[in-house]
Amino acid sequence: MIALLYLLNVAGSAGQSTCSKYFASRGGSVNLYNINKAGVALLVFLIVGLFRGISFHVPTILLGFGYGAFIYVGSFAGFTALGLGPMALTSMIASFSLVIPFAVGVTVWGETLSVWGILGIILLVCSIVLLNFKKIDDRLSLKWTFFTFLTFFVTGVASVFQKQHQMNYPGLYRTEFMIASMLCMLVLQLIVVLVKGTFRTEIRFCVPGSLGGFLEGAATYIVLYLAASQNASVLFPVVSVAKIIAVWCIGRMAFKEQLRAWQTVGLVAGIAAIALLNLK
Fold first, then answer.
1. Cβ-based burial of 234 (10 A; exposed 0-12, middle 13-18, buried ≥19)
2. Contact present, 128 and 186 (Cβ < 8 Å)
């Protein structure tokens, strides 16, 4: 059952990245994509909540709003980065955000860091350096680097909100958490288009964004479910390494992306690093 949930999470997360890459590579609006993404995810969880019942739980709402705010920034940054560079490389570096909840798990939540974990962290650093070690050119610009590492940071912090919520309320208020986070993301995005004056042109249906919202919502809910019983130092590395492999395969097959020799070494090092982080 647990293995199946991990697989479903990876399928949803990689599917959302594919939708985002497809839309971004065709010059689609990040605002339009995110409005549909947050709106569809919110609608799905509201429907689930109507059948299961919704509790007004203030701590969950606050943690959900925090998660939603960081995910909004991460979604904007990730969409922009995917439009500027290769899907496999962008998603690989963004997936290293697992280092943040991993570090919090060891230093704050009292999870044990093994010798394998230390080796894994060293390999992760080497992997990031190899993946990004090249002359800045039109394909991998400074702008791509900024947005990719912004995605890395905010996604990692958002994961801390997820894990902290399920540490405080294991198995509880998952639907409420998702409703609060998607509502926050949608409101922030609507504020942006109102300020930009593009409300009329960007409030419309978008298939990639809607599908991405459904997939992302499902993947996030599964992580919440797993976070109630799995250590952060296990959960996030396993999810990330599986997503890295899935996204790399999709990038190769669907978008004909190629990695240079040292980037391929970096990819292998990253996968090995995350595997080591999962050893006890």
1. middle
2. no
Distance between CA atoms of 219 and 236, rounded to whole angstroms?
A: 12
pLDDT at residue 229, as a whole number: 74
Is the CB of residue 81 less than 8 Å from the CB of residue 147?
yes
63-119 residue pLDDT tens:
999 999 998 998 888 888 877 877 767 777 777 777 788 788 878 877 776 787 778
Q: 166-173 long-range contacts, Cβ below 8 Å, gap at least 24?
A: 166/224, 166/227, 166/228, 167/109, 167/227, 168/59, 168/63, 169/57, 169/59, 169/60, 170/228, 170/229, 171/228, 173/55, 173/57, 173/60
Instruction: Please tell me the distance from the alpha carbon of residue 262 to that of residue 96, in angstroms, as a whole number.
Output: 18
Q: pLDDT of 14-44, one tens digit each?
A: 888 788 878 877 888 888 888 999 999 999 8
Cα angle for residues 68, 73, 74 (degrees, 5° grid):
90
DSSP letters for 252-270? HHHS-----HHHHHHHHHH
Residue 171, Cβ neighbours under 10 Å: how many? Answer: 11
Give the CA distances from residue 90 to residues 51, 124, 144, 182, 273, in Å, rounded to whole numbers and listed in that order: 38, 15, 9, 24, 17
> For 45, phi and psi rounded to 5 degrees?
-75, -25
Which structure tokens are listed for 174? 């998952």
109 burial (CB, 10 Å; 0-12 / 13-18 / 19+) is middle
The pLDDT assigned to 254 comes to: 65
Read off the pLDDT of each residue in 178-201 and give the average, rounded to a whole number.
88
Name the E strands within 87-206.
none
